[in-house]
Amino acid sequence: MKDLTRTPHNALVRLSADTDQSSQTRPGSLGRRRFLRQAGGVATAALAAGGMSASLLLGETPSAEASEVGPLATEQRHLRAFQIRQQCARYAYSQRIPEHPTSNDEAVMPGFWANFSKTLPHNQLGEVEPFAYEMMLKALTSGLPEAFELIPRGSSGRLVNPQAALAFDLEGTDTHALALPAAPDFASETVAKELVELYWRAMTRDVPLSQYGNERLTNAALQDLQRYPEFSGLNANTLFRGGLPGEDIGPMISQFLWKPFNLGSTPIPQLYRTTVAGNDHLTGYQAWLGVQNGQPPATAATFDSTTRYIRNGRDLAEYVHTDYSFQAFSIAAQILLSFGAAALDDANPYKTSGRQAGFATFGSPHVHDLVARVAALALKAAWYQKWQLHRRIRPEEYAGRLHNHINRAAKYPLPDSLFSSLALPAVFSKYGSYLLPMAYPEGCPVHPAYPGGHATIAGACTTVLKAFFNESFVIPNPVVASDDGLSLQPFTSAQLTIGTELNKLASNIAYGRDTAGVHWRTDEIAGLQLGEAVALSVLTEFNSCYNEKFSGFTLTKFDGTTVTLNTQPDDSIRIPRRIA
What's residue 63's pLDDT? Predict the structure, then answer.
């Protein structure tokens, strides 16, 4: 038989000289059906007399006979499917195994208090009991399911899915083959800068986004953050934004979180439930200590009786509190598809076809499927980094260290610039502690910080949408929410494109978690890039599976560079194994 491994899928034809295609022997052929009818003739008559269709029992349909047609005989198709999977597996296996750098906190800082430990037992300082952390490390090292059940806990709280870090997938790059930089060290100035930003995000949650720079709190935040070289160029328009290409154009919130969409035949306005102003949590020490041990939160969310369009940080934080994993991106896909063929990427083989339209391939089901598909894969990649490698402390835990250090209950190697921040007296004046005011009663999730899970999903799903749609397409009739969140107004100050608004959406979903207080900025930077790499690998593999004449997806990455994914996963497109 011919070697099909080098034959393009859409160029393969039946090789009649190599394969017996006799209608009497080929699976699914007319010969097989005739044999079944002849062999079951007597039974057919008996069943018909009883009112039952024999054709259904014999695997037939009541329609007229039809022979299978197509460029490949069944045996050849079977072989080609195997070869495509082999080809993708060989490509993945051929890639260099990366190094996985981590911080030294776990080894250098005594007692594991510089790492994530929520729901394990803690002392009165909120420091984890070392034996419990060591039991967690043993479970993560062994991978034995029963070992995870033996990890001590401080109360009823449960760790979130550490075994997902060890799962395999059959699509895209293996989750363990993608590397991130080490998370910043506990005592680094990077952590100081990020914690100061988080205090100001918390203090300004109720300021309308349109008023940034026009009132006292955001001006104080700008003054304080500009002390750090990385924030020296910060202004009212870029405050708390992620810095992705084009993200600073127009309102802070993406059009895909504001514009209405259709859920089937039902029109849906993007009005969301939010919490009332000032509804912050874990600002008292005993409440904070309780959730470190896994106790239920001492306070509850107080919800606004009116649903609103997202108009401030609190609304955004609540959106990313209760959203399902790829929610924002599924909605974005609905909105993008409503723009029609002009919004599709030029590489879509059906964009200019006069006779065919895309559906299962290059149509709406294809878009929605890949958005959902890469979300789950991205989460597994993030969970590997979180549990097996970095185990980074959450901001909520870190602020507890700072609180105890200032009150002289303990001493930690904290960065000097923290103590000159304007945020600390502002937080203490309002709450009577130096704890980080949390948007959620339960505080941070029960898994380590680095990288951000929402950010990794955002990176993956956004990359898929960039692949399918024309990034330069101008979004029609853009809007902006009123300061009370009750209405949408026309936005006319700038043209907003699909590409920049998708970047903005990725940033909103990622950094909305920072506004809630549950993540660091570097968690989101790493997560976005990790998710992007996951999606690129999946999109590249799927290029081997299409019959259409397709030149490959072209899209703009988060670093501003343009990449074209060729139609075969070979060395012409390398998925980055080390993500800078």
Answer: 54
User: Which pLDDT tens digit goes with each residue over 381-401?
Assistant: 999 999 999 999 999 999 999
Domain range for residue 37? 9-59+67-94
Q: Is residue 33 within 8 Å of 27, Cβ to Cβ?
A: no
CA distances from 322 to 325, 440, 452, 486, 508 (A): 9, 11, 16, 21, 15
- DSSP-based three-state secondary structure for 337: helix
Helical spans, DSSP H, in 442-493: 453-468
Q: Residue 48: its pLDDT value, please?
A: 42
Averaged pLDDT, 14-19: 33
Pairing of strands 266-268, 479-481: unpaired
Asked if 454 is an active-site residue, the reply is: yes
Any domain includes 226: no
pLDDT per position as a tens digit, 499-538? 999 999 999 999 999 999 999 999 999 999 999 999 999 9
Q: Indicate which residue of 366, 403, 405, 447 is catalytic.
A: 447
Residue 505 lies in a domain: yes
What ranges make up the beta strands (E) of 439-526? 479-481, 488-490
133 within a domain of the structure (yes/no):
no
d(CA 21, CA 29) in angstroms, rounded, equals 9
Instruction: Give me the catalytic one of 390, 403, 454, 519.
Output: 454
Q: Which helix (H) or strand (E) holds 577?
A: none
Q: In the annotation, is 9 catalytic?
A: no
Q: Quick one: 321 and 459 in the same domain?
A: yes
